[in-house]
Structures are given as C-alpha cells and as structure tokens.
Amino acid sequence: MSSSEPGKTSYREAMREALREALRADERVFLMGEDVGRYGGCFAVSLGLLEEFGPERIRDTPLSESAFVGAGIGAALGGMRPIVEIMTVNFSLLALDQIMNNAATLLHMSGGQFSVPLVIRMTTGAGRQVAAQHSHSLEGWYAHIPGLRIVAPATLEDARGMLATALADPDPVLIFEHGSLYNMTGELALDAGAVDIDAAAIRRPGTDVTLISYGGTLGTALDAAGELAGKHISAEVIDLRTLRPLDDETILGSVRRTHRAVIVDEGWRSGSLAAEVSARIMEQAFYDLDAPVERVCSAEVPVPYPRHLEEAALPQVPGIVAAAQRAVG
Amino acid sequence: MSPRRRPAVTAGTGTAGTGTAGTQAAHHADLLRQMLLVRRFEERCVELYSAGEIHGFVHLYIGEEAVAVGVNQALTPDDAIVSTYREHGHALVRGIPLDAVMAEMYGRTTGCSGGRGGSMHLFDAKTRFYGGNAIVGGGLPLAVGVALADKMRGESRVTACFFGDGAVAEGEFHECLNLSALWQLPVLFCCENNMYAMGTALDRAQAQTDLAMRAASYGMPAWAVDGMDVLAVEQAARHAAGAIRGGGGPHFLELRTYRFRAHSMYDPDRYRDKAEVAQWRQHDPIDALTARMREAGELTDEALAAIDAGLAAALAGAVESARAAPLEPVANLTRFVYSPRQS
C-alpha cells in the first residue's frame, strides 16, 4: 500500500490491494481492459500492477469492449480466471451482447457443462460533472439478468474483500464501483480479506424507519440518518451490497421492525432496482407497513453537466430526510 | 442465370490425401461418409420438423457440408470449436454422438445440451465444442478468449471459429480480427461465405465483397477457398492449422459455399433466383466427391449403398432413442442458471 500510515487506506488502494492479492494467489488470474497497464487504470486502481506482474497478466486492450469482454468469457471457459475492467458502465453497453447473451446464458444453454468464472469490474454513477455519457447508474439493468451476480462495494472492507470472493465464484460476477468512492479514505484492518457477497449489511441500526441503499448513495443515506437523529427519528440504514440476488431476509427483517421503508437508488426511478425492492416489501411485508414505501431516485433525465443541475438530478440528503419524515408521519 | 461467383480459388500447400492409393481411397470414403452423415441427419430433421416432432428455429447446412468436414480434418481432439446457429454439421463431424445431437433436437435430457439449447445451441465439453452461438458475430470474442487461455497456458491448440458472411458486417468481427492478430492468438477463422445473410445478398450489404482481403488487412494470412470442394477445404485448413500451431498467429479462410435450402424452416426463400439455386446444386460437394471417387475407381455402388444403409440405421436408432428419452421435469426449470454453491 502506498499509504504511509498503517491501517489508513483509500477505496482505490483497497481495490488495488485486492487485485494484487488475487494476482499473487492464482496464476490463472489476469486483468485486462482499456488502459489498465501502462496508464495505470483510468481511475488509477491498477497503478503499478503492470510493473509487478508484467504485460501478459496486466493486459492493455484496444477500445473493443465487446471483443475483450467476450475474450474474458472465452478465457474463463478455457480455464483462466480473468478480471475484465470496463472503464464505465456507459461503455459496458458496447459489450452488452457478450454479458447478456454469453456470460449470463452459457451455463444454462449448455445444460450445465460450461460455467463462466469471470469477474467484470466497472465504474458507475454520477457526481463528478462528467455529463450524460459517463454518469449513469445502470447496475439495476444488470441486476435484471438471471445468471449474473451483481455486487456494489460501498465500504473499504468491501472494496478490499469482494474481489476474492467474486473470483472464487464459478459464475460471472459484476462489480460496480461508484466513481465518487475511489478517494474515500479510512481505517482498514491490516489483515482485511475476503468478505461474503451474499448478505446485505445493516450499517446503522435504528427503530423508526429503514433506509435501503447501496454503492455511491450509502454515504448519502448515512448522512440523512444522522440528520434524522437530530429530528428524533431513528433510521436504520441497510447497505444492499449484492444487488442480485437480493437478500430479502435482511431487508424484510428490518422493515418488520421499523414498519417504514425509504429506498435510495441512484438509478432512474422507473423500472429501477428501487422498484424491485419496493415490490418485494409490498409482496412480503405489506401488513407490517405503517406507511407507503418511499423511493428517492435520480430524476428521469440524462445526467446534466452543470453542478447545480447534476446535484438536483441525484438523490440528496434533504430528499431522503423529507421522504423519511413523510413515512414516519 | 449463372451463380454470381463460381468459387474457384484454392490455396494452401498441405499434403492431405497423399499416400498409397488404398489409404487415399479410405480417406475419401471417410470424408464422404461424414458429409453424408450431416446431409442425411438434416434431411431427417426436415421430415421431423414437418411432422411436428422438433420445433423452434432449425437452420440447415445442406450444401455446405464440405466446409465442416474439411476443416475438421485439420483439428485434433485437443482443439476447440466455436460455432453458429447453423452448426449441426460442425457438431456431428466433431464427434458429438449422433444420438445426443438428435436428442437435443427433441429437447430431451439426453441431448448434448441437456435439451435446454435445441438446434441452435449444441454444446459438448468433452470435444471442446463451445456451442452454437445464435447472435451473429457473437462467437468470435469467445473464440479469441478460448485461444487466449490456450496461449497463456502454453498449450499448442487451435480454436476453429465458424461464422457466416453476415458476421463480417458486425463490429465484433473487426474487433476480434484485430485483437487476435495483435496478440497473435491461435484462432482459425472460418468464414462460411454462402453469399447471403439470411435474405440479404453479400453485395447488397458489403461495399467490399472480397472478405479474405478484408481479413488480410488486419495483418493475418487469409485466403479464399472453394468451399464446395472438401479436399480443397481440408488442404487449406491443414495448412492454416499447421501454421497456427507453429506460432503463426491467427489465420483466416473465406470458404465460398452455398446453402441449398432456405435460411431456416420459416424462410419462404423469396430473395434468390431459383435458377441460381439450381446452378449451385450442380456443384453439390457430395456429388463432386462421389464423382471423383468413382472416376478413380475408389467407390462402387455397393460401397455407397452400404454407407447410406449404415447412416439410415444409425439415424433411425437416434430418432427412436430421442423419442423415448425423458424430458426434464418442470421442477428443474431453474437449474443451471447458477452453478451449485459450495456451502
């Protein structure tokens, strides 16, 4: 780690350490993607890895998302354990055929003969004034697809620990890294390692309302919970962590205690992951609810460039606080 | 009207077919038997489809058999194949058991994909057959990846990737030719140019119709081959596969061929001149090899009848066993969406 203070690290460094550990532990593991090598990664996650592991295992690719994602699938079929980095979720649409029609489908279509042990990492989300082709949160789309496992590390522990578990999974795992998190710093245990990718986590316990969030909006939800505490509303904050399959048990267990739910999702509201979570609460905990489920999502607009409009388009603390207050009544 | 382009180009310097007259005759008989296996299988599929026994999309390879049979001669059991939705021929000559392919047509658990794939999605791990891919161009990235894995693991293997002329219009084609040449991966690209992307003729979709030339522009050896001549295909494929195994990087064969039947069982075939189809039928690869063998005294009527009788019996057995094979219980519907989890 480049951090001089033991235990102090950033999300970016935690990801890099996870990559380094995976590359050291298993010679079948390699990383490929645009500018992962000599450039050091578009977000500097893989900085220094080329020097340590060489160009065979840290592979710079042409700007051919479909070819190199598909090559990752083929290499996984061929016995390797590839990690494919796609620069942003918007660019992943150029590889959607491979992700959807091959990675997610081959195991089933082949009657169980060909599993695809592939990890795809990509950046998602807004908040950096990079406008309408670099800012969207499309992980909810991917969470629609049977055959994929979708995870969204929102903490240093998960940035450090989800990759190893994803690599051990026999099926394709997509890791969505919110671009606003790379510079997040904090304490991380020196022996931090693999974490589960099955369960949601309660990041702050509370009794009056459940705020359900993940990835880049977890921090916003926690901030909102802090503000609500000042208004004598005790909010529980759930970090979904894994978007497919959803951990219904943790979500519903919390809602059954608090009787109110606010879902915070940077995806667009219509047809969103928030809609899915909301539907599950209605289906399975309807009679435990004391108020309608609230959703705080992104405005239905391509993310605009100017800061004030971008901020207005995204879930923010005041919107979450207001939704929670409505729910509590 | 004559075919708009008679495939006449052959290339390669392989040595297939040399040897004593006896071994050559046996080799030719083997090629003939394989082409007839594919032909008779598909003729039976037409009957079964018409009778409502098999369903879905069924894309026939009839007329193109020399391509699968010839290319397969250059492959070893360690090599891999990535194919398309028109892959009955590739699967059968690769050695996926006839019974398992037929059972797949019936959607039975004994099918080579457990019945979940059907005609377009034949898979077989034992023979490294990575499937029928039904997205045009979608198989090319997989082939690049399988070859990448082989190269990184130090294996001397070839991945043969079949696709049609329609795939040349897809971005994945260009991405994959570039990437495989850039990384010098052991891929044998086999472009089955049957001159139609479903109903769209090549020259109605491509400004430059010399596909081998376009492949060559990515920096790999590429040439056009008479895809109606199984010996020419074999010779070219052996030459290319040998070069690939020697570290020569990807090679590209444009196999000029023709499908005698419609695109699929749904296709009314309104876009082709009947005379054009009739002209191409004059160049039936099975007839061509049969004539050559007769001329060389390598084939008697009795021998041909014996091959056909053997195939008819095998097909009858395959149909019978497929009809009797079990269907997957509905309770197992969501099996194989995820691998079994270790707890």
Give the structure's gist in a few sentences.
With 329 residues, chain A is α/β, with parallel strands linked by helices. In chain A, 37% of the residues lie in helices and 20% in strands.
Question: Would you kindly provide a written description of the structure presented here, covering whatever features stand out?
Answer:
The complex is a heterodimer of chains A (329) and B (343). With 329 residues, chain A is an alpha/beta fold. Chain A folds into 2 domains: 8-187, 3-Layer(aba) Sandwich (Rossmann fold), CATH 3.40.50; 201-328, Rossmann fold. Helix content of chain A is 37%, strand content 20%. In chain A, strands 3-2-4-5-7-6-12 form a 7-stranded mixed β-sheet, with helices on both faces. In chain A, strand 6 (149-151), helix 8 (156-168) and strand 7 form a beta-alpha-beta unit. In chain A, helix 3 (65-77) runs parallel beside helix 5 (96-103). Chain A is globular. Chain B has a single domain (21-323), classed as Rossmann fold (3-Layer(aba) Sandwich). Helices cover 44% and strands 11% of the residues of chain B. In chain B, the strands form 2 sheets. A 6-stranded parallel β-sheet of chain B has the order 2-1-3-4-8-7, with helices on both faces. In chain B, strands 5-6 form a two-stranded antiparallel ribbon. The N and C termini of chain B lie far apart (67 Å). The interface between A and B is large, with 40 and 44 residues.
The CATH topology assignment of chain B is Rossmann fold
Q: Name the CATH class of the largest domain in chain A.
A: Alpha Beta
Biggest sheet: strand arrangement of chain B = 2-1-3-4-8-7
Overall structural class of chain B, as computed from helix and strand content, comes to alpha/beta
